[in-house]
Amino acid sequence: MGRSSKDKRDIYYRLAKEEGWRARSAFKLLQLDHEFNLFTGVNRAVDLCAAPGSWSQVLSRKLRGREEKVEKGEGGEEVKIVAVDLQAMAPLPGVTQIQGDITKVSTAQEIIRHFEGQPADLVVCDGAPDVTGLHDVDEYIQAQLLLAALNITTHVLKPGGTFVAKIFRGKDVTLLYSQLKIFFSGVTCAKPRSSRNSSIEAFVVCQNYQPPEGYVPNMSNPLLDHSYDVDFNQLEGPNRVIVPFLACGDLSAFDSDRTYPLQLDAGKQYQYTPPTQPPIHPPYQQACHLRKNNLLSREDAPTDCPNQSRDQDPSAESS
């Protein structure tokens, strides 16, 4: 929940506080369910990257509320919800919390243990990194998080199940779509109304989980593990689909996002080098002319272009 005045004017921010949701993101899952009927027939659900718990709240209210309406004599299956996050989260009624890493096999095993050996019907993930403002970096980290969520989903989701996750719609988003299409027959990119238009976030709704024939779920994801030669080269068949990412360049090279002093070498004097192609008619050309001639502080400073004489200016006073 945001603290700035802009967030306080947001209608979903206010509604979330009025209705008791932990974050405004609860409305995103509610609107996705309204469009895709995500909760129909769901008895076992997993919420990845759950903190602070708004999506777990939605699962608890919707699934457990439906369970309470079913009479005991009808033999309805018990609803079980598991929330996973690295951070601790305040307890929720009917939600089992696991404080663990979604890139670990032990986390997937613990989820299945809470379901008494049964796979999940629905897996949702609203996780996102702490954005840096560098869009390429943010999109890549979010893609990593999405693939990590997909990886653990292949361990816990039943065939025909549904997977919902946040995605950043960058220039390479089609690569993620093609990766998801390998495991799900239906992949849809949806943007709820409660998601701000200024945000590049959206949500992929992946329905009808159908892993490729011969696929064996594993945590040897090369996008999350730097041991390419050890793990990645041993994968065969459909497990080799994920393309590894490699950062090129020595760590001692210059950082393109850092500011360095002009004097790089201690024993060498800095020498100015003019640009190869100076700008043509820059917008600051007149300001540079006024400053060069000490005219910035004068009230009678000319307002025309330095290449234009005052005699050519129709607004100039006649002498």
Which keywords apply here?
Rossmann fold, 319 residues, alpha/beta, 29% helix, disordered N terminus, 9 helices, disordered C terminus, elongated, single chain
Write out the strand line-up for the largest beta sheet, numbering strands in chain order: 3-2-1-4-5-7-6
Query: Percent of residues in beta strands?
Result: 15-25%
What can be said about the biggest beta sheet? 7 strands, mixed
CATH architecture of the domain at 5-220: 3-Layer(aba) Sandwich
* Helix-strand string: HHHEHEEHEHEHEEHH
* Uncertain parts: 1-5, 71-75, 222-230, 239-250, 306-319
Quickly give the structural class.
alpha/beta
Protein name: Putative tRNA (cytidine(32)/guanosine(34)-2'-O)-methyltransferase
Enzyme class: transferase
Keywords: Cytoplasm, Methyltransferase, S-adenosyl-L-methionine, Transferase, tRNA processing
Active site: 166
List the helices and strands and how they pair.
Layout: H1 5-9, H2 11-19, H3 26-36, E1 44-48, H4 54-69, E2 80-85, E3 95-99, H5 105-114, E4 120-125, H6 135-156, E5 157-168, H7 173-181, E6 184-190, E7 201-209, H8 228-231, H9 285-292
Parallel strand pairs: 1-2, 1-4, 2-3, 4-5
Antiparallel strand pairs: 5-7, 6-7
Helix pairs in contact: 5-6
Tell me about this structure:
The protein is of the alpha/beta class. It has a domain at 5-220: 3-Layer(aba) Sandwich (Rossmann fold), CATH 3.40.50. The protein is built from 9 helices and 7 strands; from the N terminus they run H-H-H-E-H-E-E-H-E-H-E-H-E-E-H-H. Strands 3-2-1-4-5-7-6 form a 7-stranded mixed sheet, sandwiched between helices. Helix 5 (105-114) packs across helix 6. The longest helix is centred in the middle third of the chain and has 22 residues, at 135-156. The model is unreliable at 1-5, 71-75, 222-230, 239-250 and 306-319 (pLDDT under 50). It catalyses: cytidine(32)/guanosine(34) in tRNA + 2 S-adenosyl-L-methionine = 2'-O-methylcytidine(32)/2'-O-methylguanosine(34) in tRNA + 2 S-adenosyl-L-homocysteine + 2 H(+). Residues 305-319 have a biased composition (Polar residues). Belongs to the class I-like SAM-binding methyltransferase superfamily. RNA methyltransferase RlmE family. TRM7 subfamily. GO terms for molecular function: tRNA (guanosine(34)-2'-O)-methyltransferase activity. Pfam families: FtsJ.
